[in-house]
Amino acid sequence: MSGLAAVAVALVPVFAVIVAGAGMRRLRFPGESFWPAAERLVYYVLFPALLFRTISTANLTDVQVGPMAAALLSALAILIVILLLARPVVARNGPAFTSVFQAATRFNTYVGLAAAAALFDAEVVTAFALCIAVMVPTLNLACVAILSLYGARAGSAGSRLGLLRRTAWDVVRNPLILACLAGGAMQVAQLPLPRLVDEVLFILARAALPLGLLAVGAALTANGLLERLRPVAVACAGKLVLFPLLIAGTAILFGVSGPSLTAAILWGVLPTSPAAYVLARQLGGDAEAMAAAVTATTVAAFATMPVMLDLLL
């Protein structure tokens, strides 16, 4: 089996669970109230348990944290400049541009960790967890800044500054960031996890990815896709093709290799997070375009992820 075919086969279970989540939501099983509760459980309990255990127990000797972070942040900066320059062409108005921006820059951590676990060894999973620690706060602040400037609710400079301050506070309290910081503190202090704690976290961590992937599928919707074909197509191209190519280039520039390179490239090929829709709805983005872009990137990623991973790794 070729490398491309092997990657595609390994990703089939990941996307099959996403499809199962979409089907369950359409069949209204187990009920509409289940999915918001499931998302909160994954976000506040299961996913932090996974990240904390992964980082606190990992061997970080082969992870190039600094160069990997520099490569990711540099690629993101270049992508942001390209999107801003292309704004008059890719979107008909400010709110539509915010959805293109979010779709092209945000990432689905559930898909990423599931793909890392399915395709690679524990070192790549650890490196990917560290990517989360670097990129989650950066992207949250960047997306809120763009929404405050171009969204339908864009206001005065003072109100925008207040919004960014509130977002910064939300980032500081983000359970994923706190879990990564706590796991990193355990690493620095070289403190082993007590066996009982480790076993509890292991059980919780095993539930994070399947439930998270089901929630990803449940959030997918095709509403507004055809009406917004151009911005959605631009978002897909930016997120699934241009971003991984930029990361590959900056990784070469900063000398990233091994598990860190694999994690960085995997980061680049991921579809957009459904959380982008929530932010668009709250801050005056084009929510329907955002939902369509999340669905389109997730569906398209099933084809593009194996190709880009095979090409760039």
Would you kindly provide a written description of the structure presented here, covering whatever features stand out?
This protein has 313 residues and is an all-alpha fold. It has one domain: Na+/H+ antiporter like fold, CATH 1.20.1530. The chain is 80% helix and 0% strand. The protein is built from 14 helices and no strands. The mean pLDDT is 89.
SSE order and pairing:
Elements: H1 3-26, H2 34-56, H3 65-85, H4 87-90, H5 94-105, H6 109-119, H7 122-150, H8 157-172, H9 175-189, H10 195-218, H11 229-253, H12 258-268, H13 275-283, H14 287-312
Tally of domains: 1
User: What is the distance, rounded to the nearest whole angstrom, between the alpha carbons of the first and last residues?
Assistant: 17 Å
Structural class: mainly alpha
Cα-atom radius of gyration: 19 Å
- Determine the mean pLDDT: 89
**Order of helices and strands, N to C?**
HHHHHHHHHHHHHH
Percentage of residues in helical conformation: over 70%
The second-level CATH architecture is Up-down Bundle
Membrane topology: Multi-pass membrane protein
InterPro entries: Mem_transp_PIN-like, Na+/solute_symporter_sf
Subcellular location: Cell membrane
Family: Belongs to the auxin efflux carrier (TC 2.A.69) family.
